[in-house]
Amino acid sequence: MSRLGPWLTLAAVGVLGGTLFAVTMAQDTTTSTEASAPAVTASAPDTAQNTTAAAPFPAEADYIGTASPASGATLTLAITVESGKAIAYACDGVGIESWLDGPAEAGALRLTGKNAATFDGSFDGNAVTGSLAIGDQQWTFTAAPVQAPAGLYVYESGGVRQSWITDSAGRVTGVQRGADGATAPAPALRPDGTATVAGAEVTATKVSGADNVG
Predict the structure, then answer these.
(1) Is 73 exposed, middle or buried, given 0-12, 13-18 or 19+ CB atoms closer than 10 A?
(2) Each residue's pLDDT tens digit, 126-137
(3) Percent of the chain at pLDDT above 70?
(4) Predicted confidence (pLDDT) per residue in 141-152, tens digit
(5) Are residues 193 and 149 in contact, defined by beta-carbon separation less than 8 angstroms?
(6) What is the pTM of this model?
(7) DSSP category for residue 114
(8) Could you give phi then psi for residue 184, rounded to 5 degrees?
C-alpha cells in the first residue's frame, strides 16, 4: 500500500495539469473568435425627406404654361398675381376657356371658376406648378414667370369679350365669347396690344391679379 502513494500523487498531478490545459485552450479559442469577428455598428434609418417649401409670391407677377391632357384639347394657362390675389385664364384658342380667381397666399393658389372649375397650385420661388380641372378633364401645369408684353389681355364691348394669352415668345392664344355664351377663336392680337374686333381697331387691356374679370 505504501508503494501506491507516489503513483497516486503523480496521477492526481496529471489530471490537474490536463484540466488547466483544457481551460487555457478554451479561453484562447474564445479570445481568438472575438478578435476575428467584425464589429457591428447599428445605424439609425435615414428619415430625412427632400421637400421644397412654398415661397411667398411677389407683389405682382405673371406666369404662363401649356399642357396637354391624356385626351382632349391642349390648353394654355396664364396666371397673374397682385397683392395677395390671383386670376387665372385657360383656353385652347378655339372654343374652350375658363376664368378662375382666388387668394395667392403663402405660396399657394386655390382658384375657382364657373362650372366647378378649379386650379390648385404652389409657388417654389420661380414657377407655379399645379392642376387645373374643368368638368371631368384635368391638366397638370408648370407655369413659368414672364415679363411684359407677355401676359393676359382682355377686351370687352357690347357683351362680347375677347381674351388673349401672349407668351414670352410672342405666341398668342385667345378665345372670343359672345353675349349668348357662344365661343370662337379670338381675332389676332398684335405685339402692340391692338386687334381688329368687328371691323374696329381696339386696344386690349392687360389683366392684373387684383382685377375683376371672368
Answers:
(1) middle
(2) 999 999 999 889
(3) 74
(4) 999 999 999 999
(5) yes
(6) 0.75
(7) G
(8) -160, 165
